[in-house]
């Protein structure tokens, strides 16, 4: 045992404390104990493992206070994951202490109250997770300086950041693919040159590598910067729950890979009508514009821009994801970032770990849209879910036989409710609040007198329902009555085949079966 070099015991049901005898295995290079039920402190004696390159202890019940300087003796340590425990990490490091150069550092949920100063010297970071802490103040300018050559994933969500230090330019992080700043207190100036500007960053360079931006649940103002069109690799953009005031950004159709657009609960205004009939969203699958101030006729031109919802270019079933590869000392690692959904149905919360690429959903609820429901919606044969509730729509309901979820409640619709196929599966709540609607076979109109729901003060992740796939398997729909679309991020990983098969199996990529409430999240 004393010559053991790798210890892989992740995703078991190990209980108790981390045994002290592990510290005697001084040849260890990897210790992976993730996703167990271990409790107690991290033994200080683990600092004797001077050959250690990876230490993964996340998703346990470890507790206690640790000095981050305990890792100073581990000169080869490049991967450290201790998030999702009950630890308190003290990050003050003396001037004469030299820490190892980390590439992958996950200190989420570590009760940090300030931005760790030791990161100033960490100029090889590829992945940095400081989410779900208690860090206050501004994000330091030097983070952009040390990360501009290598940093690909930056996760600072669920803290108390109020902004960025002056002249901190997000655009300088040319390698950055993944940015999570949601659920902070960001307001005023973001990483843009002029201190007089407020809101979303105005400068994104042509070489931007960004694939995902989540700035939701902040206090951002102003208009969307047109320089976002330089983010040609963008796949998901979530700006929900802010104070952004602008017209609908049809110019985002110039992003050829955009799949998910969440603008829920802002102050967008005006009509949802394309100024250019040639514009098309080629990849967009999920769009949430609910709880804004959109007005005017629900124009058919809008639905004609949703090319990916009219035609399918899919060659095979897959999940929406981004894969990032980086080189570690003894192998290459592919980190897979999959979009996840957190759902709520009548107060019951559920978590779905992946979004299949067959899902397409539109939520335009809780605006002031008027006029008839356009017949052109009938051309969106790939759409599974459509929410038009809480508007001022009038006229009848067109026959939309391809939907698995449909909600037009609290409008001014009249006439018979279509029957047959999917329409027979929608419950009465899909139509309530429309006194002029009635079942065609019924001589009596349904009672639809309930008042429309008010703008909700809900937790971050909402939505509900299911759809039936071609293989008759139920998968999640990210749209629901009184709720919106919810998309987050989940990280899994797999190791390249350049190392032994047993090692691949140990780090095998999650298959991510759909699971319901009560399961712990693994959002990175």
From TrEMBL:
Keyword Ion transport: no
Keyword terms: Cell membrane, Glycoprotein, Leucine-rich repeat, Membrane, Receptor, Repeat, Transmembrane, Transmembrane helix
Subcellular location: Cell membrane
SMART domains tied to this protein: LRR_TYP
Start and end residues of each stretch annotated as Disordered: 440-461
SUPFAM superfamilies for this protein: L domain-like
InterPro entries tied to this protein: Leu-rich_rpt, Leu-rich_rpt_typical-subtyp, LRR_dom_sf
Membrane topology according to the record: Single-pass type I membrane protein
GO cellular component terms given for this protein: plasma membrane
PANTHER family noted in UniProt: LRR RECEPTOR-LIKE KINASE, RECEPTOR-LIKE PROTEIN 12 ISOFORM X1
Annotated family: Belongs to the RLP family.
Protein name: Receptor-like protein 12
Organism of this sequence: Salix viminalis (Common osier)
Biological classification of the source: Eukaryota, Viridiplantae, Streptophyta, Embryophyta, Tracheophyta
């Amino acid at each position: 045992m004393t010559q053991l070099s790798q210890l892989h015991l992740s995703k078991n049901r190990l209980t108790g404390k981390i045994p002290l005898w592990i510290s005697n295995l001084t040849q260890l290079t990897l210790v992976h104990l993730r996703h167990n039920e271990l409790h107690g402190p991290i033994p200080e004696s683990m600092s004797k493992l001077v050959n250690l390159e990876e230490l993964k202890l996340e998703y346990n019940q470890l507790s206690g206070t640790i000095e981050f300087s305990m890792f100073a003796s581990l000169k080869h340590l490049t991967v450290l994951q201790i998030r999702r425990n009950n630890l308190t990490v003290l990050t003050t490091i003396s001037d004469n202490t030299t820490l190892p150069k980390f590439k992958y550092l996950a200190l989420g949920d570590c009760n940090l109250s300030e931005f760790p100063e030791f990161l100033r010297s960490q100029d090889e970071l590829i992945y940095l997770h400081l989410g779900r802490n208690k860090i206050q103040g501004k994000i330091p300018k030097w983070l952009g300086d040390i990360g501009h050559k290598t940093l690909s994933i930056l996760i600072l969500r669920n803290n108390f950041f109020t902004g960025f230090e002056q002249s901190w330019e997000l655009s300088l992080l040319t390698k950055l693919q993944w940015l999570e700043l949601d659920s902070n207190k960001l307001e005023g100036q973001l990483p843009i040159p002029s201190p007089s500007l407020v809101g979303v960053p105005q400068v994104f360079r042509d070489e931007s590598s960004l694939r995902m931006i989540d700035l939701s649940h902040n206090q951002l103002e102003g208009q969307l910067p047109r320089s976002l069109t330089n983010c040609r690799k963008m796949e998901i953009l979530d700006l929900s729950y802010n104070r952004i005031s602008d017209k609908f950004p049809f110019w985002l159709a110039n992003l050829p890979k955009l799949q998910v657009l969440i603008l829920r609960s802002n102050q967008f205004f005006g009509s949802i009508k394309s100024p250019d009939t040639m514009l098309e969203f080629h990849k967009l699958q999920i769009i949430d514009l609910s709880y804004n101030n959109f007005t005017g006729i629900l124009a058919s031109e809008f639905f004609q821009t949703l090319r990916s919802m009219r035609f399918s270019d899919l060659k095979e079933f897959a999940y929406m994801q981004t894969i990032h590869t980086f080189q570690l000392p003894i192998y290459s690692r592919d980190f897979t970032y999959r979009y996840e959904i957190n759902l709520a149905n009548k107060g019951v919360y559920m978590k779905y770990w992946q979004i299949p690429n067959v899902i397409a959903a539109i939520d335009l609820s809780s605006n002031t849209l008027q006029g008839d429901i356009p017949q052109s919606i009938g051309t969106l044969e790939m759409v599974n879910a459509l929410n038009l509730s809480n508007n001022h729509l009038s006229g009848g309901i067109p026959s939309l036989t391809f939907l698995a979820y449909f909600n037009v409640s609290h409008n001014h619709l009249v006439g018979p409710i279509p029957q047959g196929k999917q329409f027979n599966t929608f419950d009465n709540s899909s139509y309530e609040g429309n006194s002029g609607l009635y079942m065609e076979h019924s001589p009596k109109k349904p009672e639809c007198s309930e008042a429309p729901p008010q703008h909700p003060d809900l937790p971050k992740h909402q939505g509900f329902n299911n759809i039936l796939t071609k293989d008759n398997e139920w998968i999640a729909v990210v749209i629901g009555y009184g709720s919106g679309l919810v998309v987050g991020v989940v990280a899994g990983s797999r190791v390249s085949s350049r190392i032994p098969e047993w090692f691949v199996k140990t780090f095998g990529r999650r298959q991510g079966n759909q699971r319901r409430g009560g399961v712990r999240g693994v959002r990175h």
